[in-house]
């Protein structure tokens, strides 16, 4: 059901963990739906220097989290904000129709983390 | 590495002798049992023999067995047939079932609601057990059908069918039980259980997929689910699936011979798995500890999600299943686990291991060695697990 | 003496390659297609491949094929599903069928009468053909379903489905055709025929018993016949009969490759049988002389009864069938022959020979040599035949 | 479905034919039902000296006709009248339930033939 790319990311997820003093953190989903993603980013000079995720969810949820972090690491905030759900799914060689919502979650968590970062910036 | 199949609750490998009997049937006895000629008569003979074998494993007479295309069809035939039949006789339109039934039962009952039937769904306790008092409270004068499964497919809990059936029948209702998971695994005797209708399926007992049967006690009338030829005493039309039915017969014979020893062996494995895995922190047993099928293990691992667990196990060559929503094709996790009072979150993290003929002591060892590291890996990935590491080590040190 | 099987209309021997594919599936891919693990994924792959093979033989896309337990279930699913579905949408409650349908169709329509549907049964001419004008007359604004078979199972007559379907659909009715006898024998293309629903069965095309399919055109809604798991896009629940379905797929592939040559070969045999046996006195051909299935021969032998004829043929190693009441389990002879205007007496004396892959030129010779003496023997026993001997010899001398 | 006895009588029916100047003839059934039996008897000194049948019908119809003629040939009229349907079926080792009516037909045809004989006797 999953592509090889999905399984590869699931088996070897990139950027797992939590950034201690993160510039921004985004969390979406809830446990009763079966999916929670938390993405933390470290931003320097408007560039995502580091990014980490933790995910409670199915194979697709873990793989989309992983590929999403990989896609935006080293990118500027503006570039990262352009990341679409479709781009996440495409980077994995596609997802089964029933799992497409997982790609939404990953992009959403990232966008939340950036929003959190911007909010913190505003306060400073 | 030889893969370890522990999903016998989903389906079983076909027994080599069953395959052999089916091949022989296809090669030598391909006739239509309704035909007058020698090919037809030979086919008819095999059909009769298989019927006798299946009947014998449940203490029924051959003419009480109607072959179907599987457990689902048997359940639907029983439920639609009995409910509609009883209503036609003016007996009423109230049906009782339980919250932990297979979808073939639950969804058939729900479809009957659209036809004007009223359905009462009995609750279960935290072990998944239906209480006789609950049925007592629910029974009414217009109750026409009570359908409660013999053993649950997810958590293995065995229901007190004998008492439930006695009660229902005393009130004039037809009693059906879905014995798809228990048939061939633990003793199932229609007379001892006292049921009117009982469903079974071949592919759960090392027989072929696409064959099942419905036991129909003498005098129980069912309106048919479909129409056509006069096969199966006009109760189930269509050219009989002869190779499949012969395979079912063979599987029933083998189960009958091996059931007791196999149940004892698998109970040992089951208990090793349960006891071994329960030593991990934050694990919950689902279903009754002892009053459960010999082959069933069902545990919830907190903080992780079932499908991920299955995929990780699959990468290690272990085939299992889960009540996670992600594996059910629906949005909600297992209705069985929810009915037992589990939170959504914990239901999502359930793992079912169902043992069977091919499993060995080594398979049990392998699972006991493999699961802890996988659970740890997934927990490390989980945002829910934070701060639990400390608790974990505490528990482990104890 | 090698027996001669000429009852391929009842069922066919399973092709050795089909058996092989089924055995391989049972031995190597026994998983449940719904399972997440490797066993399940492997099973799912085989299921998808088989669906593509069956779809291809009827010019459909794979997702338009729903596997069932046979032709009977496909017919019932189509008829109950479409009729109830259309009524729910408020489209009406009138159904049209023909007098020569299989019981799976006719009896399903009759059962719908009890649910308040009105059923018009179109007559056929003496060749068993439905006339387009009859359908034109019968169609009403509240007609929701027209179900007319592609080729008749008893007499082989082929119906003008393309025109019938066009007419029915122009009036807003769903069009179903039972193609159980034509599928794999003559070209069946759902788009050319223009049908909404089409039934087929594996065991008529050298596949296994207990598997069939329903083609469902895009946009056609059916209420389900039964409820349960989410298999077959929720249209037909129950663990899929994987080995059977794989066998069906294999049989479809083989049919697709061999159909044209086989149809030509069998047409030759058919015509030799018809011409040869028509030389006997007091014999009538049933069904259209040319617009019939390549494999079908159906003759009535006056003054004798079909079951006796079958038994005599059986003693000579020939397997055939008859429209005699004695072989149908009912009191009346074939409703098909009666609808074509045959008297009861002549319908009782019908013989159907249905050719197939295993038959050879020698089988045809053997039948042509054997039947005359048997017919003579039974006529000598018949109180109806008296005084006909003279006529006989006259006819023969001509 | 049929016993060996049935098949043996069907394959080699006894007493087939028609007695030219019969003492009595009985015919029952009709072609539209799929069964017609005609039994003709030759009676001498109240004994059935000869008996013949012709039957249009299924295997059971032919076998029951055959065994019925065999059972009463050489018997007295009174003995023949005692022949029951069950006795006919029993002599064949039983009949499938759906075919039991065939045994009725054979005994009926015989009884009709005897009645015909008696009627003719009365007239003479
Ligand atoms: C309890 C129970 N009932 C019914 C079924 C349906 O049986 P089948 O897959 O043969 O249709 C199953 C298995 O899936 C089951 O476990
Ligand atoms: C025309 C026709 N329709 C339906 C059927 C029923 O198919 P099945 O035996 O696969 O249920 C048959 C065969 O018996 C048939 O010939």
Automatic annotation (TrEMBL), chains A, D:
InterPro entries associated with the record: NIF_FeS_clus_asmbl_NifU-like (IPR017787), NIF_FeS_clus_asmbl_NifU_N (IPR002871)
Gene Ontology biological process terms in this record: iron-sulfur cluster assembly
MF annotations from Gene Ontology: iron ion binding; iron-sulfur cluster binding
Domain named NIF system FeS cluster assembly NifU N-terminal: residues: 1-122
Any Pfam family matching the protein: NifU_N
Taxonomy, superkingdom: Bacteria
NCBIfam families, alphabetized: NifU_clost (TIGR03419)
Protein's recorded name: Fe-S cluster assembly scaffold protein NifU
Gene symbol of the encoding locus: nifU
UniProtKB/TrEMBL annotation, chains B, C:
An annotated Gene Ontology molecular function: cysteine desulfurase activity
Keywords tagged on the record: 2Fe-2S, Cytoplasm, Iron, Iron-sulfur, Metal-binding, Pyridoxal phosphate, Transferase
Domain Aminotransferase class V per the UniProt entry, residue ranges: 4-366
A Pfam family per the record: Aminotran_5
Cofactor: pyridoxal 5'-phosphate
The family this protein is said to belong to: Belongs to the class-V pyridoxal-phosphate-dependent aminotransferase family. NifS/IscS subfamily.
Designated name of the protein: Cysteine desulfurase IscS
Organism, as annotated: Heliorestis acidaminivorans
Taxonomic placement: Bacteria, Bacillati, Bacillota, Clostridia, Eubacteriales
Primary gene name: nifS
